[in-house]
Amino acid sequence: MCSSDLFPSHDNDSIINRICEGSEIERKNIQVHLIKSADVNAFALPAGHLVVLSGLIKDAESPEALAGVLAHEIAHIERKHVSKKLVKELGITALAGMASGGAGGEVIKQAVKTLSSSAFDRKMEKEADLKAVDYMVNAEIDPLPFAALMDQFAEDQPELLSVV
After folding, report:
1. What are phi and psi of 53, to 5 degrees?
2. Which of 25, 86, 128, 155 is the one with CA 20 to 30 A from 50?
């Protein structure tokens, strides 16, 4: 399978379908948006939207590594991480605003938001990574290239893994 085969014109052949079928995920609940961009990224949005930037497809070292990134984002969708994150962030902002009595508490709000969301984010990212591996195994896709990609990412950006 080459990278250009991952988003073929026939949905039943796509890697997204393969991941969904392997793990009994309702494919119709995931809407893939391919955006032409040199940036290398993919991300989940509320309501089952999966955004994939074309730079990710172009620069993926292997189809399996790309499948791992897509499985990771599907895990965020399936675990409703985006919605949970939004609810949490909005709740913290509202609480901090009430506790501080208004504008003077902006610094407190931002500090609380940053500290709490870092731990929350790490937990969700780890959960999505582990679930992605499950999805890949279920779809009979080798997860080792995805693991190597995650190791490389951790090596390139160790500050993202530091404990708050």
Report:
1. -85, 135
2. 155
